[in-house]
Each structure stands twice: as C-alpha cells, then as structure tokens.
Prior knowledge:
Layout: E1 4-8, H1 10-17, E2 24-30, H2 31-36, H3 41-55, E3 59-63, H4 65-71, E4 80-85, H5 92-95, E5 102-106, H6 112-124, E6 129-133, H7 141-147, E7 157-160, H8 163-172, E8 176-180, E9 186-187, E10 197-201, H9 210-215, E11 218-221, H10 234-251
Parallel strand pairs: 2-3, 5-6, 5-10, 6-7, 8-10, 8-11, 9-11
Antiparallel strand pairs: 1-4, 2-4
Amino acid sequence: MPTSIVVEGKISVDAVLHSQYRKVLTIFYDVAKLKRKRNTKRARSLKETIESGKSQDIKIEAVDQNWFEKHVIGKTHGGIAAIVSERIFQKIPELLKSKPGIFFFLNGIEDPYNLGHTIRSLYAAGIDGIVMNQRSWLDVEGIIIKSSAGTSELMPMALVEDLETTTNFFKSKNYIIACTDKDEGQSIYQSNLKPPLFIVIGGEKRGINRNFLDNANLRLTIPYEREFGGSLPVNSAAVIIGFEILRQRRYSNK
C-alpha cells in the first residue's frame, strides 16, 4: 500500500503546507503555464505557494503538462500539485486536550466527495473535531482534501475501532452524549447544543442500535416540513445540526 498521495490545486497544496497532520514531500508546478500567465494574479498566487514551500525546505520541481496528465486525476489542478505523506490522525485523548468542545461521530459516509463536503461544512460551522470508524482513506485522501476545500487538513480528526469505548471515554470527561433519532428524538431547535457535547450521526442504512439510543443523554431529530418517512443522508444531517450549533453559539441565550 502506498504511503504518499498526490494532492492537486492551489487550495489543497496551501492547506497541506499549513497542516500539522502530514508532511509535504515535493511540490510540482507547470512551468510553461506559469510563464504564460506570469503577469496575472493567478501566477502571483502560485508563486506565493511555491515560495511558501521553499521557506519550509520542501523540494520544488518544475514539470510540464504531461506530468499532470500522468499523475493527477482531475483537470482543475491549475498547474500545481504536491506529493504528501499519509495523514496522522489523532487519538481521542488528544482531541480533548483543550477546552470542552463539540465533536461529531460520522457513521456511514462512504463517498469521499460527500465526506469532504461534510468536513468543509462542519469546519465552517466551528465544530471542534470529527471522529470516524477505523478504515483506510489513503486512496481517496486527495479527493477529500480537494472537496473539503482544504479544511480536512485543518480539522482535528480521530479514527476509532469501537464506538462504545469511545463514547464511554467522552462520558468520563463529562461530555453529553447525543445521537440522531428520527422517530423519538427532540427537535434540534428545542435542544441545548452547547459544549461539552459528543454527537453521533447514524448511517442511513444501519442507523444507531437501540442499546446506544437508550443510553444516550440526548436524542435529536431534524423536523421536516412535509410528511416524509425517510432519513436524511448523514452528511446533510450533520451539516444541519452543525449550523444549528453555530446559531446557538452566536445568538441563543439558552
């Protein structure tokens, strides 16, 4: 299994340059494209990224378009890419080193684009960290970085093997354990979503098991306007709850 990946595009490369969770090995740029656009704002922006890499003693390579066609998946790289190490995920105790926060456990997101979009939204909403089931994302990390607009490199994240053990640890640190429950939950708009809070978002297919629901401190539901028996996708539910948390943090007197 490879231990390095290619990330593409200025936003992604800038993100990994500022990340504390992985190492940038080499930055590649399209020398012909940079020369053609040398007096443009885009060219100046790319040069800033290249200079940032140099200041960190990162290897810089000028390449042609053929390199990008061979090594990069998409067409929107803008003439810059980087080879980076595998991400270092945090341990749960490391997530909780700072002041009490709000953390999401995302269960059932398999598509890397959806995961990236979810991370981007939760980062924008000010969520303090994300926990997911243990699995290898290495083959799709480049997609996650790009679809998250680089926020996956800034968001604290942990991978765990067992939700129950993880939940018990959060409980031992006096966190409220919340979970989504479409049928018997309390509206998120009538719930106190303040830290310390650990929120478990269930998958569409498997959901959350009854034992976990019975032991949660708080069950949450997202009210619908229409009669509809289906569940929202995990990423949609997470984003809605995330921005209700932001609303309460900013505007609520609860």
